Amino acid sequence: MNKKTKGLLALLLRKPEASILLVGIILIITFQSLTPDFFTNANMQTVSQFFAPWTLIACGEIMLLISGEVDLSVGQVFALAPFIMHFAIVAGLPVVLGVVVALLVSAFLGFCIGVITVRFGVPSFITTLGAMLLFNGLTLTISGGFPLDTPDGITGVILGGWEYSEILWAVGIALAMHIMLRHTRWGLHTVAAGGNPTGAAEAGIHIRRIKIGNFMMCSVLGGFAGILNAFHVTSIDPNAGGANVMFLAIASAVIGGTSLLGGSGTILGGLFGAAVLGILQDGFTLLGINAFTFDIITGAAILITMISNVQFAAWRRRSRI
Amino acid sequence: MSDTNHALEARNITKRFGRVQALHGISLTLKPGEMLGILGDNGAGKSTLMKILSGYHAPTTGELLVKGEQVEFTSVDHARSFGIECVYQDLALVNTLSVYHNMFLNREVRHGASPFLNHKEMRERAAAALEDIGVNVPSVDEEVGMLSGGQRQAIAIARAVSSNARVLLLDEPLAAMGAREAGMIIALIERLKARGDVSLIMIAHNYAQTLDVADKVMMVQRGTCTFEGRSADTSVLELLDIVKREYRAAAQ
């Protein structure tokens, strides 16, 4: 192996986001050579609309996973937030303020989940499993189970009406969150809280505050993704989002290199992971491959990523590259 | 009656947890630059004493004095504000963070008033602090989880020293360590002593190592101090004798 390939290999192993980026590029080249429809404006819109919500929710889940928690209920906040916005607008608020109210309510829901988790020591898997059913019931109750139309106006266009607005929001927020994770105390303390909770507490870090904050962030991102999605499809659907969007977001995070065990993760990796899943789903649709195959591929990808993460960690320890 | 020459002094400390009397009145003094080794079995009360000195527990009765001033620590942070820092056995290091991030954990340097971390300055200051006390690591960018037990212990000590600790409490710094690694930590402790600006209290199990590095030693058994002496006047056999005597007494 010459020096250059060795350097490249080292980069791919050291930076999990680099390997998933490589996978994405290979997929793009493959699909483009198999079908001329891939690199068209219409298809790029489709791909971006696939993975924009996964990216936003993945950002929230990544912060939570790093701090050693998980949120299963965020897909239900995705469905609930647009209804809160609707009712705020019906009550007389302008659309922008309706969005703000919906995000505040989302933040409050995240706060409740966080407090229950850290105060009462309930594992977040259980807290958010309960919250998942509770929020879903809440959405179905206040909506009566029927979908509504989104309001007209410029706010809606900026938030999701234009074909590329969803993905621009998603990428912009992902970049901001990447900076937060790598270059602020909040990000560093999030890693510490998940990596060594006892040690972080002994160093004086307020672990509970960090975790509650990350639960709130995740819920807000879920609610915001739901609002963007509602404006995009011009309909507020009580059955939107759900467990499917939540699991795809966690899959994006894990494929991108975030550990399910806490203490390490990457926002950019989550963005690339979501893009890879979006490209796969879209590519298969273009090629006319059965949609069920997508689930097989996603499942296999998560397993392979987890196995290789464990193997690479052991290999790095041995070879110390 | 207080001696301002003492970096730390404990007078007749007792500690009771419910019905269990963990400490039956222990006193100690520590001059600046001096090192005390605390020996004793597991469950003898060494760790309880350490936790009282570091502000983690409050004593049931007894007094603590820092430079002759009586103090009542309300928390670990409070004790830290008096320059008393404990290096815990679990090291309080985050394996998935770099060496320099660990060195500055919860006292990070930022770019002025902005919320953004000044990685460059932390990196440089961490490297300087490690070099200052002669700790070698491959790179301050290396994740702590990649380092050996001895290197991790050295980083934990360096972190405490660089945060201006005046009294360092080392909780079994040589536990689960090979001879070479332990030698490295002992050499580091000796360099710290030579500088003369920190006092140290070390809990340890190895009599020979402790007598070798500490100025004075203390034996804690069943919550009481059964021996106190200068290391230079004490032998390993003497300490073993005390332990045997204690066991015989306990058996009867």
Q: Provide the CATH topology of chain A.
A: ABC transporter involved in vitamin B12 uptake, BtuC
Task: Indicate the structural class of chain A.
Answer: mainly alpha
Q: From the alpha-carbon coordinates, what is the Rg of chain A to the nearest angstrom?
A: 20 Å
Global shape of chain A: globular
**Number of distinct beta strands of chain A:** 2
Q: Supply the helix-strand structural class of chain B.
A: alpha/beta
The CATH topology annotation of the domain at 8-94 and 165-251 in chain B reads as Rossmann fold
SSE string of chain B, helices as H and strands as E = EEEHEEHEHHHEHEHEEH
- Name of the CATH architecture of the domain at 8-94 and 165-251 in chain B: 3-Layer(aba) Sandwich
Distance between the termini of chain B: 41 Å
**Name of the CATH architecture of chain A:** Orthogonal Bundle
Low-confidence stretches of chain A: none
Quaternary organisation: heterodimer
Head-to-tail CA distance between termini of chain A: 14 Å
Secondary-structure map:
The complex is a heterodimer of chains A (321) and B (252).
Chain A: H1 3-14, H2 16-34, H3 41-66, H4 74-90, H5 95-120, H6 124-143, E1 148-149, H7 154-161, H8 165-183, H9 185-195, H10 197-202, H11 207-233, E2 235-236, H12 242-255, H13 267-287, H14 291-319
Antiparallel strand pairs in A: 1-2
Helix pairs in contact in A: 1-2, 2-13, 3-8, 3-9, 3-11, 3-12, 3-13, 4-5, 4-6, 4-11, 4-12, 5-6, 5-11, 7-11, 8-9, 9-11, 12-13, 13-14
Chain B: E1 8-17, E2 20-30, E3 35-39, H1 46-53, E4 61-66, E5 69-71, H2 76-80, E6 84-87, H3 99-103, H4 119-132, H5 149-162, E7 167-171, H6 179-195, E8 199-203, H7 207-213, E9 216-221, E10 224-230, H8 236-251
Parallel strand pairs in B: 3-8, 3-9, 6-7, 7-8
Antiparallel strand pairs in B: 1-2, 1-4, 4-5, 9-10
Helix pairs in contact in B: 5-6
